[in-house]
Amino acid sequence: MRAAHIVRPVYMFMTVFSVSLLLLAGTNSTFAAEIEPFVGDYVGSANVVDSDGTETPRDMSVSISELKDGFNVSWTTTTYKGDGRIKEEEYSVDFKTTERPDVFSAAMKRNVFGHEVPLDPMKGEPFVWGRIEGATLTVFSLFIGPNGGYELQQFDRTLADGGLDLSFSRFRNGEKSRSVETFLEKK
Predict the structure, then answer these.
(1) Rounded to whole angstroms, what are the CA distances from 20 to 5, 24, 79?
(2) C-alpha radius of gyration, the chain, whole number
(3) Which class for 128: exposed (0-12), middle (13-18), buried (19 or more C-beta within 10 A)?
(4) Is the confidence at residue 88, as pLDDT, over 70?
(5) Which residues of 51-70 are buried (b: 16+ CB within 10 A; e: fewer)?
(6) How many CA atoms lie less than 13 Å away from 180 in the CB half-sphere?
(7) Whole-prediction pTM value?
(8) pLDDT at position 20
(9) How far apart are alpha carbons 58 and 132 in whole angstroms?
(10) Quick one: 38-186 is in which CATH superfamily?
């Protein structure tokens, strides 16, 4: 009689544990199906348009890769200044799944416990997050200035035949200050 009382709780625990693993596996495979079409290396160039209408030529590349529990977006921009100077900037952000479907948090630094966490916009660092909506992977970056004003950058990367359509916008306190649209070819 005692063995039956022990076996039943163990059986129930194993059943709940197995169902939980199946649900987690389903969640991960759903995620993989969402990011997989975006995975790859892309290159292109465009003229960035400032709010005053001036244009600056820029080369761009982006690499999107799948991670164990999220994905990485790494991008490089090379700006050609009118005086002959060349400015290159590189960025790389890991994105982790969240409890919200299709919304991803940025893991840009580690806290004292070794966990990856977003940066703190109240310290002048960008708050970054991403989302997948249909055929578009969007990365947002929010900056809060010393006076409380803000800057929001939005990178929309939409799947297109042979690559990605890139649409970038920068808003300062609600006013669009810079934008670019171009095609990035898959390598």
Answers:
(1) 23, 6, 49
(2) 22
(3) buried
(4) yes
(5) eeeeebebebbbbbeeeeeb
(6) 22
(7) 0.76
(8) 39
(9) 26
(10) Calycin beta-barrel core domain (2.40.128.20)
Structural element, H or E, at residue 35: helix 2-35
pLDDT digits (tens, 9 = 90+) for 101-155: 899 999 876 766 777 667 788 888 899 999 999 999 999 999 999 999 999 999 9
Q: Which two tokens stand for residue 181?
A: 């649209």
Contact 74, 62 (CB under 8 A): yes
What pLDDT is stored for residue 3 in this prediction?
52
Query: Which residues lie below 8 Å from residue 175, measured CB to CB, with a gap of 6+?
Result: 51
SS3 21: helix
Q: Residue 94, Cα to own-chain centre: how many angstroms?
A: 7
* β 86-97/103-107 pair status: antiparallel
Which parts of the chain fold into alpha helices (H)?
2-35
Flag whether pLDDT at 25 surpasses 80: no
- In whole angstroms, what is the distance from residue 130 CA to residue 90 CA? 18
Q: At 173, list the tokens.
A: 């306190």
